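Hi everyone,

Forwarding the result from last night's run.
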Amino acid sequence: MTGSSPSLSAEQGRPAVLAFALLRGAVAAGLGVGSIAVLVLALWISSPASDSSPGGALHAAAGLWLLAHGAELIRADTLSGVPAPVGLVPLLLAVVPVWLVHRAARDVLVPEEGRPVPSAAGAFAMVVTGYLLVGAAVAYYGRGGPLSVHLPSLLFPAALVVAGAAAAGVWTAAGRPVGPPPSWAPVSLHEALARGRFREQAGTVCRTAAAGVSVLLGGGALLVAVALMWHAHPAQESFVRLAGDWAGRVSVFLLALVLVPNAAVWGAAYGLGPGFALGTASTVTPLAFSGRPALPGFPLLAALPAEGPGTVLNWSAVAVPVAAGATVAWFTVRRAAPPGAAREDAWSPRETALAAALAAVGCGAGTAVLAAAAGGPLGTRALAEFGPVWWLTGAAALAWTALLGVPGALLLRAWRLREPGASTDEEGEAAGNTEPVPASVPVSVSAPAHEATSRASYGSDRRWWLWSGRRGGGDAAGAAPGSEPDAASAGAPASRPAPAAAASTPVAPPAARLSVPDRDESFEPYDFLPTDPWHERTARPEGAGPSGNS
């Protein structure tokens, strides 16, 4: 629409751009409804014993699409005749509408030739409005079907989920900025945001919290997988009993697949300690499986532990929160004290502990939100509570990650910033060919420079040129009373005798003793080479040097 008028001004194109944003939101909602409707209709067509009309399949698709947004459905067809609520949201199914509305809000703000870019607030409002208009139409269509929507749940949490996804899309299109706080915010917050160190720490806290939540979910999924393998036979029997034909088995498999993230959250809640509820009268924790569970037949529920007190295998689930706490500590210190960083460049212990504590708070909040989304009612009476208790699960995640993450971060920081010791000084003393001596002890001569270089390079007291078997004359005479025997017997001639005045001179510091002395005219640096007429001629003092070779 705007591509045909490239000369459109910003004032003239503003209504068209807002209408385009409204249309993008409606299209995103229509794509979500259409994808679920196509899947439901395909299963309905392939079912040989379908007892409903195409309208019933479309009503079921509309109810599933609303359920994916967090809306609560009312199931009218029950055995007791009393309408039963259905509030357990398949989390994997919820990914589709959230991603669609996020992409719609992001793409509206992408500049295109001939179309002015709307403001962020205008794009957000139009996309959300277009999406909710389609949602209202779908809810109106499904009110007479087997799964009608509970109207208050359309505002919370369904509308809130749509608004949050659209806001994330607008923020992504803007480059994910961390803008200035509002004018009514405290001055200290403005000053903190102006500092680069604060932004760095805030980013570290967010990444660490996300890593902690990811480890909890991964650990929960691992617990569920191990439990399913342990109870493979009951899970297979439940799967076969629910559906006899292949279309029904595909439906059960797809339903189990979209509930896998829910099972991962339940496994994380189990490892954290609070566990989850199987009705109003039963709770499953690592310590015990108590009460009378109200269990519908479903393959994922076959992975539940045996009823009664927990065993050592059940208690081993505590490894999940321990791994999450270690992850919080590791991700915090990875930025607070990177490997090889100087002590003055690392964060202080207070900053490190505060970052780990805030990451633990974020991990607890994220876990609580996921626990609230992963559970919900499946009916009345005994099935009114099904899944983890969100506030208990969030509090347990906060406690585990804070009690393990904060001390772990401080210990890891101290380990990375530990002092390397006096190894450098010891190597320097070894290179000086002698042990440190007091300043009052007199010596006659210091080690030659080539000996110091050899000891520093090879780290030992052995001289590699001694293997030539050649020794210069006058070694014993040239050796001073205070020098080492090896220095007197080396292939290189010994140093010149120290004068009498120098015998009583105090020893210089190690840095002075490492200085290169005056080179001796009879020094033979290539004594280890094979002896031939040229070497024999140049090895003699009178033939060495340029004057001897001329």
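The mean pLDDT is 78.

Cheers,
N.
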